[in-house]
Amino acid sequence: MGNQRNALISSKQTARGVVLASAPLYDPLKHSLFTSATATEIVQRISAGEWTASQVLEAYIARAAQAQNKTNCLTEVLFEDARLQANQLDKEFAATQKVRGRLHGVPMTFKDQFEIAGYDATIGFTHWANKPSTDDAFLVSLCRAEGAIIIAKTNVPQTMFAFECSNPLWGRTLNPWNAKYTCGGSSGGEAAVLALDGSALGVGSDIGGSLRIPASYCGIYSLKPSTGRVSAHGAKGCRPGFEAIRVSYGPMARSIEDCDLFSRVAFGQLDPARRVAPVPYRPVELPKKLKFGYYFSDLLVRSSPATVRAVQETIDALRKAGHECVEFSTLLRTPSAMEVFVGLVTSDGYKKMLSYLEGDPQEDSLFLSTLGAKVPGFVRRFMCFAAQAFFGDHVFPRFFSQARAKSVLEFCEFTDRRREVEEAWYKEVWDKHQFDGIIAPVQALPVIPHGACAYLSGLASATVLFNIIDSPVGIVPVTRVDASLDQMSPNLKPGETGGSTIFEKWMYQNGPRTVYNPQEMAGIPVGVQIVGRKWDDEKVLAMMRVVDEALGPRGFGPGSWETGDNGGT
Predict the structure, then answer these.
(1) Residue 468 has pLDDT above 70, yes or no
(2) What is the dihedral of CA 498, 502, 505, 510, to 10 degrees?
């Protein structure tokens, strides 16, 4: 069985290599004009007759191949089909002098889970290989109808339930800025290829931070829409039937205008299942002075200095631009939401999700996430007792104790608790303070090294919150880790601010295995979350633009990897 699996893995990777070999070498003098343009600008230039779709495509093919060589971000590669489509688009434009649609000639990539006719959608499972899809996912069809050219699919972690990016079939994807660190997950390959300008626009998904964490780790922009604004039709997963927390699908890009462009195309477009809210993109006009709430920590763990600085620099810039910013605190933040999240996602003991491994070795990144549901109840209870008695940790047991299979009655109770958290958040935060938006950390750490998700999966709490309350959230890159500015205080005592003692010790005081290391992390991007009320997706996009403009030029966007502190070289 093992030999058969290894042969299959080798054949898939070899086939990918053959297609990649057709890519021209990336030539900055020849190609950077195109790869340093936003998707929006690409359409404008083609529409003006200045560029052709084929010219743009060859530049992105060259860059995507280079991105793959550096980070291992691609899975299925569609270069030949893409060339045929670009040629057809050029013929259409030559005959009509009109673009096909709003994405005419834009080279795009999709997270591996999206079905594309003629290509596998394995999401890293070896036994799903060599079983090509027969139809395109709705978003794939929609983007192609608007003139987009899909050049590749991108890598994901095994089961798409981790914020690293590794699986037995395609291997591990690296952070473009430093190969020692992960690109994030589960839309990690998408973030990596975009950060390296190997794609002009991407599409990912999010059930606990999968659009947002990799965007922050890699220094790009993303939008997690309210669930139901964008179609899920034709996107594969390994938890079919689980609806207690719905997945959100959205854009990943190198600019806010490109996130906005995708949203104009995708919002409210009804798929065959008709599970999308039939609400198309609605332009919004913001008041001149906005009121933002903000906080520095999600209460589960203390945030690192780099994370705190990213939030503070954002708030300082907004205040300088004339906006009101109010720090707030509420006990309704992550611990309660994380308890509900863990309680719901472990409701079947992960039996459905893990059943898809079918002989594939389980990736280490799933260790802590799946541990509680695997061990006998008395072991789980002892671990919770030990965390409190021996480590003084009263936070870790709160959610680890919920990591177990549940009865239907318990599942319903946790579903109702999700409603309670959502209603309480609106009452105690949105309605009480009347914020236009919230500035929040993406994660307590700016990035994690490969393998750290195995024991730090709880750090997703900062993003999980906004899946539980179903808020639209945008990611804007703010700064980069600076070894001189982001040192942790030597006087830190894990747990002293009420966070998890166990997590904080691993993060900040674990000898040579200490995760937070600003010297090693120097140059890694750090972003923030811009949060809005449910259905205010267009307002979130507009507030992202306000934040981006307030922060000013800072080395992000198309072409930034070439000019930035690309410490991964």
Answers:
(1) yes
(2) 180
Catalytic residue selected from 166, 186, 297, 457: 186
47 is catalytic: no
Nearest to 334 by CA among 369, 297, 280: 297
What's the per-residue H, E or C state across 16-27? Answer: HHHHHCCCCCCC
State pLDDT tens for residues 145-178: 999 999 999 999 999 999 999 999 999 999 999 9
Cβ-proximal residues to 294 (8 Å cutoff; 6+ apart), any chain: 311, 314, 315, 325, 326, 327, 328, 438, 439, 440
Is the entire prediction scored with pTM above 0.90?
Answer: yes
When computed from its CA atoms, the radius of gyration of the chain, rounded to whole angstroms, is: 22
Alpha-carbon distances, residue 384 vs 352, 391, 399 (angstroms): 25, 10, 9
Any residues with CB less than 8 A from the CB of 384 and at least 6 apart, and which? 396, 397, 400, 401
Amino acid at 220: I
- What does the angle CA 303 – CA 487 – CA 395 come to, to the nearest 5 degrees? 25
DSSP characters over 21-45: TTSPPP-HHHHHHHHTS-HHHHHHH
Q: Is 137 in contact with 146 (CB distance < 8 Å)?
A: no
Q: Which residues contact 462 (CB under 8 A, 6 or more apart)?
A: 209, 298, 300, 334, 440, 441, 442, 443, 444, 529
Which is the catalytic residue, given 210, 226, 304, 471?
A: 210
| Residues 247, 203 contacting (CB under 8 angstroms) | no
Asked if residue 237 lies in contact with residue 353, where contact means CB atoms within 8 angstroms, the answer is no
* Catalytic site includes residue 186: yes
Contact 250, 223 (CB under 8 A): yes
- Locus of tokens 């959230």: 473
C-beta separation of 523 from 482 below 8 A: no
CA-based nearest residue to 116, from 133, 139, 138: 133
Contact 142, 265 (CB under 8 A): yes
Angle CA 490–492–498, to nearest 5: 170
* Alpha-carbon separation of residue 26 from 32, 59, 67, 140 (angstroms): 9, 7, 10, 27
User: Active site residue: 70, 111, 153, 539, which one?
Assistant: 111
Mean pLDDT in the chain?
A: 96
Residue 237 three-state SS? coil
196: three-class secondary structure by DSSP: coil
Average pLDDT over residues 28-53: 98
User: 66 Cβ partners below 8 Å, 6+ apart?
Assistant: 26, 196, 198
Sign of the torsion formed by the C-alpha atoms of 132, 135, 136 and 137? negative
The residue assigned the tokens 């006998």 is: 376
Tell me which amino acid residue 95 is: A
Amino acid at 491: N
Q: 3-state class of 52 per DSSP?
A: coil
445 conformational bin, left if phi > 0, alpha if psi -120 to 50, beta if neither: beta
Residues 6 or more apart in contact with residue 135 via CB below 8 angstroms: 115, 117, 234
In angstroms, rounded to a whole number, what is the distance separating the alpha carbons of residues 71 and 196? 9
Residues 286-332: pLDDT tens digits?
A: 999 999 999 999 889 999 999 999 999 999 999 999 999 999 986 66
Length of the chain as a residue count: 569
